[in-house]
Amino acid sequence: DQQVKQNSPSLSVQEGRISILNCDYTNSMFDYFLWYKKYPAEGPTFLISISSIKDKNEDGRFTVFLNKSAKHLSLHIVPSQPGDSAVYFCAASASGAGSYQLTFGKGTKLSVIP
Amino acid sequence: ETGVTQTPRHLVMGMTNKKSLKCEQHLGHNAMYWYKQSAKKPLELMFVYNFKEQTENNSVPSRFSPECPNSSHLFLHLHTLQPEDSALYLCASSPTGNTEAFFGQGTRLTVV
Predict the structure, then answer these.
(1) Which helix (H) or strand (E) holds A34?
(2) Are B8 and B106 contacting, i.e. CB atoms less than 8 angstroms apart?
(3) Residue B83 pLDDT exceeds 80
């Protein structure tokens, strides 16, 4: 049973517009959430994270929103650029004693059209 | 360049072969991980090492054998694999278990 779900396998957005990538989770113990970006033939690279004590974290064009009651988070990219075209993975972890596990979603492939 | 280097980048092996994947990190991190990414599946955590000690083994078959000789190096020894083990194997490291992990570029493994 998937604990982190990205229900949209792909998303196409026009350059300059906003990209919104969504992620849902089921485990209420998760308290730290991350977004990774992956280009073909490369490993995932860390993009932005948010702790459960916050509901928003912003870094340049990237903003992550967390709705704990809905167990939902989203990544907003604005304005979208062609270089943002990649697969985006949502990941979550639970800060338990000795826990080092990140649980990933299947990813959403974003295509930004020039 | 993320500071985590994996070799080889591509590997084709027969089911009776023995091979090893290598990972090296120069970031001074304490934790190292092996992940597996199969087609159309999420990244799956296989093993975790913290200060050279294995802290997690997510029910991985014994044909996968990790080794962590020091905090900078991690190996995944492979023997008698099955075709369904073909996947992208990713190594990662982090300073602690609850912060962002830095990934290598992965080894694309094909078992024939």
Answers:
(1) strand A32-38
(2) no
(3) yes
pLDDT one-digit tens code per residue, B8-35: 999 999 998 899 999 999 999 988 999 9
User: Tokens for A76?
Assistant: 């907003």
B97 vs chain A: nearest CA distance in angstroms?
Answer: 4
Chain A residue numbers touching B58 (CB-CB < 8 A): 101
Q: Compute the count of residue pairs across chains A and B with CB atoms less than 8 Å apart.
A: 66
- Residues of A whose CB is below 8 A from B6: 43
Residue-wise pLDDT tens digits, A37-58: 999 878 999 999 999 999 999 9
C-beta atoms of B48 and A2 within 8 A = no
Over residues B47-68, the pLDDT tens digits come to 988 887 777 777 899 999 999 9
Q: Which two tokens stand for residue B92?
A: 């990662």
**How many angstroms separate the CA of residue B104 from the nearest CA in chain A?**
5
By C-alpha distance, the chain B residue nearest A4 is B42
* Residue (of B58, B38, B62) closest to B48 by Cα position: B58
